[in-house]
Sequence to fold (297 residues):
Amino acid sequence: MIHVKPGYRSPVNSATTRFAPSPSGLLHLGHAYSACFAAAEARGRGGEMLLRIEDIDIARCRSEFETAILEDLAWLGLEWPEPVRRQSDHFADYRAALDRLDAIDLLYPCFLSRKELNEALSAPHLSPGFGVEMGPDGPAVTDTDRLMPEDERARRLEAGEPHVLRLRMARATEIAGELEWRDLDRGVQSATPSIFGDVVLARKDIPTSYHLAVTVDDAIQDVGLVTRGEDLFQASHLHRLLQALLDLPVPDYRHHGLLVDETGRRYAKRDKALTLRALREAGHAPGDVLQKVGLTP
Ligand code: GLU
Fold:
């Protein structure tokens, strides 16, 4: 019998925030803004900002980028407590969360690649009644196991073929009931995790997903306020559901605006000239960089 926390519930006594970059490139101005935002929120509450290295995607992440992250943030004048949590060291924590969801029959394996799924979805005769909306991470598919005969699924599972694990969203939301979470700028939100469909919680090549790892880590690290870019606003609906299913405390959230360049484009890892490293090498001081992103040093 699982115990689900209804409604909105704030974590006890935690003024902790976190900055959680992925070491798949050098930090740029947008990261500087996000990190300083998290640090300022922690300072304002008398708490600490944690640094977390989100490197579950081991093929894309590199240790030299992790080293650069630590150096660049220190150069900006930011501080964080040690040890820094590195997600790739904690796959067992995510496995335990998956096991818990599996024990209440909320996970199922899906063998179809993205391409195969798209093909199946565009062939209505194969999947009658399979109306699919677009979700935050792509098509919000549900019950994809219907697209493959049961004996074939069993055979592939037996043969150990790679597969993702999807959350059975309809059952999950039924178990969890109505949920709320609080965005400090937009107010209390009714959670609508169904927009994701049967979201992937463990990838083919990686035994977790961004959504699962981040939710588990924020709880383990006792984060009281999650700050991140507004591109992840929708993700918070899903994270709230995972908290309920895994019986985790519920932090508050703030989703900051994303910095854009003069042409209105978001800063991204491809903007090599705007990496903190390049700015530093071009002779800029940390104070200049902070001013550039509208923050006072
Ligand atoms: N690792 C994510 C990123 O680099 C941030 C995740 C989060 O703050 O929840 O975009």
